Amino acid sequence: MTSTDLTAAHTHFAFGRNWAAYAERIGETHIAEAVAGLSRLLGGARLDGRTFLDIGSGSGIHSVAALRLGASRVLALDIDVDSVGTTRAVLARHAPQSAWEVQQRSVFDLTPADPGYFDVVYSWGVLHHTGDLSGTMRQAAALCGTNGKFVFALHRRVWMDWFWRREKRWYAQASAVAQRRARLLYISLYRAGLRLTLRNPRAYFDAYLKNRGMLFEHDAHDWLGGWPYESILPREVDALLTPLGLRRERAFVSTGRLFGRHSGVFGSGCDEYVYTRPVA
């Protein structure tokens, strides 16, 4: 692979260091929120006796949530070595007696032969950072077994995507000092935007920390550095997955951020999707 191959790990922004910092804060409150979020995507159903594949496990909190919902086995994968270590530590701390495995592995290496089919294939906010969104979606969807679910979240296409692609490519290669300055500028502008929309910045950031367990600055680092970066519209997701034999079960569509629906001035929200593979 060459340096221009965006599916290669060395071309990707290092998300794992941020997840390691976040993982130190994970407690039962954060796990309960992750359980509630996963349950909402599953339509309130549990996962008793079902297998769960977590692609791009990050901190590992969603793997913990799947086990709390009764998953019989969880396989958590991430291409980032720091994320792999963090996921193992979080699972060992919060699900020590459960059946789980963590591997450092690219989604492009996955096939129905290895690691096999799963009842739930899950990937939240990851596939758009792989360097080949359509290819990785096909790869992940192929692992969804009969009557299984493909559950994922992807950045919705916004008007400012042209800017964010350039910014992220720069940020991922910038020095730590330059990244810090970019974060301070972004947060200052975000704070001003909150004021313009008659919201209290201090209350907003305090609530963000309480609900997410991560400082807004950490999430800003992830957003600004999320390279490679792609985005997609709901109708394009349908066009990609329907020919593969999957049917949309539900979707939660982003309403955009500050300064207009889907303008993307401060970034792109994620649309969440659940597709099923019906029994033939």
The mean pLDDT is 91
Gyration radius from CA atoms, angstroms: 18 Å
State the CATH topology of the largest domain. Answer: Rossmann fold
Strand content: 15-25%
Helix coverage percent of residues? 40-55%
List the domain count as a whole number.
2
- In DSSP terms (H or I, runs of 4 or more residues), the helix count works out at 10
Q: Stretches where pLDDT falls below 50 for ≥5 residues? A: none
Shape: globular
Order of helices and strands: HHEHEHEEHEHHHHHEE
**CATH evolutionary superfamily of the largest domain:** Vaccinia Virus protein VP39
Per CATH, the class of the largest domain reads Alpha Beta
**Total DSSP E strands:** 7
Outline of the structure:
The chain is of the alpha/beta class.
Structural summary, described in words:
- There is one protein chain.
- With 280 residues, the chain is α/β, with parallel strands linked by helices.
- It has 10 helices and 7 strands.
- It has a 7-stranded mixed beta sheet with strand order 3-2-1-4-5-7-6, with helices on both faces.
- The longest helix is centred in the middle third of the chain and has 21 residues, at 176-196.
- It is globular.
